[in-house]
Structures are given as structure tokens and as C-alpha cells.
């Protein structure tokens, strides 16, 4: 039997990252923050002045991406880029490079390699649809755009990054539109995903819902 995977997909600012981290901690499983890979690639592209439509070049960079996770830290070629990749600007560039099929293909192997015993919790946009279609548990989180902007604002503030809520809301809306409308692995729930509207739910409530699904299905 295959190594178990729980996928947590959804739009930006919905709380996927936090939920995935808590589920992974609770189960003692590995964690894949797939969005961080697209963000690191975006950051590397900007640093090296690579045009954001240079698909073949970006695809090669994706295949060789020297990224490592150390707890909460994200390292690119050994350099801590955690702060730089979390800005909404970097998220916007990430969603541009993420629309390129060569980039998605280039990151596939890296993502699949995170599937290690005893199990993996993976969060992103296409974890349940493309990267781990055979996952045992698939969750799709939603929340209203206003609530997601509020959460992202709070999260950025905690990291010492200043942002304006209404600007954040329009940036998030723009990014969601791009993620949902692209041809390559658009943001959408897998047919067998369980959707959870988190708008009025606290993190512990969402965590319990996900853990009960895991208990039911594994
Ligand atoms: O989740 P996060 O906000 O860090 O993702 C940044 C961007 O990376 C998303 O807006 C999306 O365009 C892209 N992404 C993706 N597929 C994933 C994860 C992230 O296309 N599995």
C-alpha cells in the first residue's frame, strides 16, 4: 500500500498553511508547503532578472531549484529567504510563473519526493487534483475574500510585514482569478475533495474537522 497523503487545497489566505502544519504536527507526518516552492522560484527569477514569460528557462530553474525547509525557514541555495518570499508582491509573481506548464512540470518530482513514511500533509492549489491524485484524504478550504484578506493581513503583520487590507484584498482577488482561470492545473476542488467553508470557523474547529476526516478515511 502507498504512503498516506492528506491534501489541503484552496485559494490564498484561507488558512491552508496553518491547518496543514497543525495536522502534520498532530499526526507526526511530513509537511509540503507547495506554494513556497513557487514563491522561491519567483524570487530566484526576480533576483536573476529572468523574464517572467521565459518558460523554458523557468522550467529548467524549477527542475533544479535548490530549496530546503528547516522548520519555519525556507532556504534557497542555503540562504534564508523566508521573509522575502512571504510578501504579496512575491505571491503575485509566483502566480505568474505558476501559470507556465513547464514550471509546473519542473516542480512535480520535487513535490512528489516529499511523500515519505509515515505520511505527508500537502497544501497548495493542485495537491489533490494533479500532484497527489491518489491521496487518501482531500480537503478544499474556502472563505469569503474579505475574511481571507483579513487573515493574510494579520499573518503578514505578525511577520513584521506592513500591508493595507483593501490593497491586499484586491491583490488576493487578482491572484485567485489568475490561479482559477489558468489552463495548467487551475485552482479547483478535486471531485473527491471535501469542501470546508472556514469563514466563521476558528483554526481549532477546522483542525478537528480535518482530523475527523482522516480518522474516517485512513
Ligand atoms: O499558497 P501560496 O500563496 O504560497 O502560493 C503562491 C502562488 O503559487 C499561488 O498564488 C499559485 O499561483 C501558486 N501555487 C500553485 N500551485 C500550488 C501552490 C501554489 O500554482 N500547488
SSE order and pairing:
Blueprint: E1 5-9, H1 16-27, E2 30-33, H2 34-47, H3 55-63, E3 67-70, E4 73-76, E5 79-80, H4 82-85, H5 88-97, H6 101-112, E6 120-124, H7 127-131, E7 137-142, H8 145-158, H9 165-181, E8 194-197, H10 203-217
Helix pairs in contact: 1-10, 2-5, 3-6, 5-9, 8-9
The site of cytidine-5'-monophosphate has 15 residues, from α2, α5 and α9.
Organism: Natronospira bacteriovora
Biased composition (Basic and acidic residues): 172-184
Binding site for ATP: 10-18
What does this structure look like?
The protein is α/β, with parallel strands linked by helices and 218 residues long. It has a single domain (5-212), classed as P-loop containing nucleotide triphosphate hydrolases (Rossmann fold, 3-Layer(aba) Sandwich), CATH 3.40.50. 51% of the residues lie in helices and 16% in strands. The chain contains 10 helices and 8 strands. It has helices at 16-27, 34-47, 55-63, 82-85, 88-97, 101-112, 127-131, 145-158, 165-181, 203-217, and strands at residues 5-9, 30-33, 67-70, 73-76, 79-80, 120-124, 137-142, 194-197. The chain has a 5-stranded parallel beta sheet with strand order 2-6-1-7-8. Strand 3 (67-70) and strand 4 form a beta hairpin. The longest helix is centred in the last third of the chain and has 17 residues, at 165-181. The model has no long low-confidence stretch (mean pLDDT 95). The protein binds cytidine-5'-monophosphate. Cytidine-5'-monophosphate binds at residues 12, 34-35, 38-39, 91, 94-95, 98, 124-127, 175, 179. Residues 12, 34-35, 38-39, 91, 94-95, 98, 124-127, 175, 179 line the site of cytidine-5'-monophosphate.
